[in-house]
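Model the whole thing, not chain by chain.
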Amino acid sequence: MKAAAFQPVYTKIKALTKATCTLEASGVQYDELAWVDGRTAQVIKVDGSSVTLQVFSGTEGIGTKAKVVFSGSPPQLKLSPLLAGRYFNAFGIAIDDGSELQAEERDVKGQTVNPVRRQLPSEFLATGIAGIDLNNTLVTGQKIPFFANPDQPYNQILAEVALRADSDRIILGGMGISHDDYLMFREKFEQSGASDKIVSYINTSEDPPLERLLIPDLVCTTAEYFAYEKQEKVLVLLSDMTLYADALAIVSNKMDQIPSKDAMPGSLYSDLARIYEKAVQFQEGGSITIIAVTSLNDGDITHAIPDNTGYITEGQLYLKKDPESGLTIIDPFRSLSRLKQNVIGIKTREDHPQLMNALVRLYADAAEARSKKENGFDLNAYDLRSLKFAQAYVRDLLDVQLNIGPEEMLDRGWKLLSDHFEPFEIGIRQKFIDTYWPK
Amino acid sequence: MTKGKIIGILSNLIQIKVLDSVKQNEICFVEKGSQRLMAEVIKINGAIAFAQLFEAGTGLQAGDEVSFTGELLEVSLGPGLLSKNFDGLQNDLEAMPGSFIKTGQRSPALDLSQSHKFSPLANVGNTLMAGSIIGEVPEKALKHKIMLPFKFKGAYKLLEVAHAGVYKLDDCIAKVEGEDGRVHEITMVQKWPVKWPIKVYKEKSRPSDIFQTGLRVIDTLNPITEGGTAYIPGAFGTGKTVLQQAIAKNNRADVVILVACGERANEVVEIFHSFPELEDLATGGKLKDKTTIVCNTSNMPVAAREASVYVGMTMAEYYRCMGYKVLLLADSTSRWAQALREMSNRMEELPGTDAFPVELPAVIANFYGRAGITKMADNRRGSVTFLGTVSPAGGNFKEPVTESTSKVARCFYALSQKRADAKRYPAIDPLGSYSRYLDYEEFQQFSEKHIEKDWIKKVNKAKTLLSKGIEARDQISILGDDSVPLDYHLDFWKSELIDFAFIQQDSFDAIDMNSSLERQSFQLNRVLEVCDRSYEFEDFSAVSQHYKKLINLFKQMNYSDFNSEDFKKFNQQIEDEFKAEQIPAS
Ligand SMILES: Nc1ncnc2c1ncn2[C@@H]1O[C@H](COP(=O)(O)OP(=O)(O)OP(=O)(O)O)[C@@H](O)[C@H]1O
Ligand SMILES: [Mg+2]
């Protein structure tokens, strides 16, 4: 990237923090991109003639006489079908050994889709995982995060889900992911044979944290390009949004903003919503589906980051280890897909909604029985039956390693019910019991 | 008009050096090439005005010109508002071209060249005051009253009024003369600043009649009245939006205004998608015809979130003045409060609790205060019933927005995470929630007359059974199934019966989603009657067996049309279940 010829060079920095620098400059635009001693920076405050820049790779070693040059425009990105199969860093610079891209540049801060021009997302997105397809059915155009503790293999599962789901294009945004996980993504993508439909923007834990702030805009702009202009079915993967939010907090702190809950900026909700709301089903056919990862601190979902995320996304997939079998499952209680209503029982078999709810309700009975047992009480016959059911439910359906079709999931569900319960115990419409109860 | 120049930019807060006088809350425009970006003054300090931009600040520069309008944020009021989809500043979203909303793009709420069929109702020579009816225009199923604009102060004489006929919105349909002898031309459209309550009514009355929501846990256990207020706090995913949308579908109001404030775009799309297909229970017409949507989703300008709730309220008050029953729903009021917080932080104000501005409680109180039943000078009665959702951080109700709202809203529908996790929908906590209207003598009289005799006694009986059930459950879980008397199990299962058969309701089932008052009263009586019967049970598992069978039958009834063959069949099976139990076990 080069500065436009007429831009003056400034060499007098007035103030520096770890993340920002302030100088006197004129004719500067809000959100404009700049370089401080060659490092990428962006205008985040204008106060009279004094301008504050956020320096993405940090200000270590920057002197008060460092050269500051403004680009004359907000951050931009080169868009072209040739992005496919490539890997870039947070500045959109290639990190694979491919050639430099020749394409037109576009502003990365895209516009809002007019809500009346959105289409109701109603296309079933199958993954083969019953914890998703059966209990928390996904729909194209949806936005949903995995909530996961650090010990969960969330990036592996994310990659797995992405490759199994039907899509024309996958855009990966890595924010603070470990280098090992980056390599894991690369390897899985290459093995799948689908790597030429994938575009990746990667910031690993070795890169400066503030650079992460640039990733979502690059990812979303690219996604919008393929979904709107090329009418493709685009799947966006964002991992790890918690580390993105942490970077937001650093900047707001250096700007002396009053923090709200958990030292997060008061605008966290709006900042996250701006990204997630890029998920859309266009009337013209293209769509953006966002599957993200929000890593948790010790399972605490009341922390401001998962909490605000939950208020924005269309549900969450809560990864956990089943205490009895040790298998990784998607917790049927805390997980939710809010768009499932648009497809279950409509695009899937009619008994899907009621069957799914019945299974979860009975699994809850088992959880209660388990805590009864832990508290040293005798279990009654029903308790014992529900515990047996829960074991089979985890083994035959919930285990994320399984890969089964939607009809098969429903059939297995009915089998589990009839193996362990009587029809009157399951609270399902008589009509469905008459049709689907295994004879 | 006053001009100014930008001297500071911080996200959507701009500082403007002004060259002449400005007003608090005045609207101004940043002139940026061909774009005009709208902003509202929120603080003035000497010659510097602070304004919140209703757009992103990207590309703005110090020195950019600003022109002030002299006006506050106003909405247009006139025929044609119903069934429209507006953004938070009352731009008509349908009228905007393209898939994306461009920076600075606007489109008027009402198309002034549109024609409407006007019929005069006032006579030449009549004395009129703000809110007096001049004529009417058919709008969907309603008769849209054309009133003397609310900004008119004092008495006016009607000099001329148009004959019945078709007129454009901005045609003059009447001339009036003020006490000062000045003559004014009246059109079918007027403007009103959104932050001022429309107070052209004679008086406000105390609520008395139930406002039917079709939800048993509300209408029966904690009813909201016409002209009443309610708030629905709950952690994410506990069912606030589903609940509001259910109410938007089931109600019998004349007009519904839905404000989607800082929430998901897809939820609004869902309404766009379903409402044109759904039937309005009040008229049999289309639900969309009585519904206006104000939608400022979370990715739309933050500053317009605050505006959106006021825009919704002002339109609600406008239809109330005509004499209609209006329902206003806002989801979520917390997003509006957060928008206030974002601005307050950027202005470096000393914050209150959780960094919210200190005036938050007053702002919320004033807003809820705008709901209610009003009587105009000619005694026509209208109402605004308001339900707002609250999204407390971490699901913890001890936070400023929930607490401030609790002081002003009369009904409290607490959504419980535990119930939501257990998929016991709607997740309204039946005992933790309340309706202050149950204590209103006016409501008690109403229920005796229009629901049934001793209604409130029965409701309280159901609540007592529920709380006994909770106690019993606690005892059972402390002492164990075997170590408590059988009565504990009975108490517990009675409360489960009330929960499953009555409180829980499936908002996604075409039949169960809406329950008429008649059906609710039948159901409550049936459930209470079943709870009253006493039997000898052999042991606690016999108790649970018995009640599970009853629950199943009640649920099957809920899924059947009221008084249909199936309904009667399941009701009969409940009787049979009792007969079966009569046979001694030994
Ligand atoms: N009455 C109900 N019947 C069946 N399912 C429900 C009901 N209420 C809520 N749900 C389920 O819970 C999900 C979340 O509900 P909803 O979107 O109303 O939550 P919310 O409280 O508005 O959350 P947020 O604060 O994040 O907007 C729904 O998508 C649906 O799956
Ligand atoms: Mg909601």
